[in-house]
């Protein structure tokens, strides 16, 4: 869908800014509610994530002695900023992105990685054993999940012959769904997304029963609220990207809701179905299996492109 | 504790006293090199309540309820051990129906405790689905216990000389239905534990303890039985009605965390089988025998099999209305040594599961007070002394 | 060897109602043997005070107004009571019972938790006497 809105309104209200923050909260609610229903529980009420955010913003922020004060306060803001900026190039809510340009796929993925890196830095900055272990695990998981995820995103990019997300989105809308044409890529993308977002079973970096809250142990109040918001927005962006690339493009709000909703349902099921993998298991599994599968998929696509060129 | 790198990557991760992995406070320090644990130490005593001292101030009947509240999960078995010791001292034996009812409560408690443990250990491993479902099914046992005794924990079913509550036939039928449902669900959980790949990845080969180690460290209960060390007080020294309604010991050979899961689930199913047998052959008799208020002087020991292992009571009477000394040695106390020994060489992520694997019950544990201070007379402390010490310590 | 052996349970739960009981909007009645608040019948009491002696929490006090005519008032400290029902068993005349309907007893002050049981005139007599003297003399 193509809308003409003043850029400032885009940045502040729709589809960026406040609307994006609100949608992050809604997706967090949907995720928690689905996980709860799978576990035969009731789950939170609709306004629960908003209530959580408000409560956190009202809490006192305690900066541990020995941590670098400026970094401690700045890192949550950087994380939220990267998440909000990454959303500008993605077809959020079915609306064509306003600021897209050639090569913005790489920029978006880079910005999402910057979010995870700032999470790891926040953990390393806090002078606390749990945060250090959590930061180590976050960065380790970053290394092992970024590469396969990028490979999986490149698959449709190769097929669409473009590095611009809106063009890939449009291409995916016209041809057969890539989930059918590149099934291995879809699997890699889905698991990679869960690893990037640190969702169970890949939540070793913030394993509650082992290292309290991982990198975010020392954060409370405003910093924690901002990190949570950044992660929620990352969830929305990730879902939109995978839905846009593999589930036939997102061209209007109804398609957006249905496709991201369906993907969220599958992800919620995968979240509850497995025990948590240890960090060495996640890395071992995914660096070998995932990267390999991604490479195989890329080779298959390249082969397909050359064969078609040779035939036609 | 400030962070000071001490060469060779010596890095101490404290788990507890406040930690999401522990349901009760206890302090563990793991010396970590990267993710591998190279050393461990434990410190307990955070929930010490002075129960053994408090027991000397209360009459025998009042002590029954104090002993019950040592632990919430294994409350009935504590009361049973105490009551058995007192009855031995008094020279009476509880009537057959009372002993059968004691066994019924004990086995129902074992079912509830093992299901609780299954959920908690699954949660430590990040498997929240198993946690939620096993606790949902545990509600069936809790409802049965509430129907029998009026309370979900702390059933208070024992009296000195017998039991308080009788079990009429309608209740037995309802319990049988509940047991059928539980058995079906437990078979499903056994299947999950044995076959789920992610779960096996977290539990197989972790915390392996050989039989010699189990004997050396003095492990008890399902922790020891999972290492092929066949010892169960219900079989080796039957109490209550275990002579008439015996239980079969469940032993596993592998000795790792996975074996402990399997042993506990199979024990739960064995409890269900024994319960059905008791319901079919319930002896008829009265419920209480008369026991005098003053228990004759003497000393005795009383051993029972709590869900966590062997529970040991020493009771000394001087002929009065109040006990002279009650000493409790709980099973979890024996199993800590195994955790400390086994932790070395594993990854940090396995620590919570190894801790949970012995089914720790910190409230049961804190029978010890370690007081390291100069004082005049180190042998005898009165209630007032202890109280003063506590006030001074926290000032 | 299976991945996600609980998936069947999970998907079935999506179509079932959640198992949570939405207390306080849904209240299930307590079972018959539930141990709630203590109730005392003064008619049958003989003043043997076995219940007082056996209570682990010293929650029962029996105030003797007139021993010969069996006029007693029971002062029940509901905040100390642990609802163990030992007193119910100790009483040989079945004067005591634990209710199975009164169990939502949370209050915000201590006053409602000191309950006096007895015949009305006995309680009035007691309160008048307490008002006249500065301190009453309960037995044990």
| Largest sheet, spatial ordering of strands of chain B | 1-2-3
Number of domains of chain C: 1
Can you tell me the CATH class of the domain at 51-323 in chain B? Mainly Alpha
User: Quick one: how many beta strands of chain C?
Assistant: 5
Largest sheet of chain B: 3 strands, antiparallel
Order of helices and strands of chain C: HEHEEHEEH
How many helices of chain C? The count is 4
Q: CATH architecture of chain C, please?
A: 2-Layer Sandwich
Strand order of the largest sheet of chain C: 2-3-5
Strand content of chain B: 5-15%
Question: Distance N terminus to C terminus of chain B?
Answer: 20 Å
The oligomeric state of the chains shown is heterotrimer
Could you name the ranges of chain C where pLDDT drops below 50 across 5 or more consecutive residues?
Answer: none
**Helix proportion of chain B:** 40-55%
CATH topology of the domain at 51-323 in chain B: Cytochrome-c3 Hydrogenase, chain B
- Give the C-alpha Rg of chain B: 22 Å
Q: Can you characterise this structure?
A:
Chain B: This is NADH dehydrogenase subunit. The complex is a heterotrimer of chains A (312), B (395) and C (140). Chain A contains 13 helices and no strands. Chain A is mainly alpha-helical and 312 residues long. Chain A has one domain (7-311). In chain B, a hairpin with a 2-residue loop joins strand 6 (298-306) and strand 7 (309-317). Chain C contains four helices and five strands. Chain C has helices at 7-14, 50-54, 86-90, 120-132; strands spanning 38-40, 60-66, 71-77, 96-98, 114-117. A three-stranded antiparallel sheet of chain C has the order 2-3-5, covered by helices on one side. In chain C, strands 1-4 form a two-stranded antiparallel sheet. The longest helix of chain C has 13 residues, at 120-132. Classes of the chains: A mainly alpha (312), B mainly alpha (395), C alpha+beta (140). The interface between A and B is medium-sized, with 31 and 34 residues.
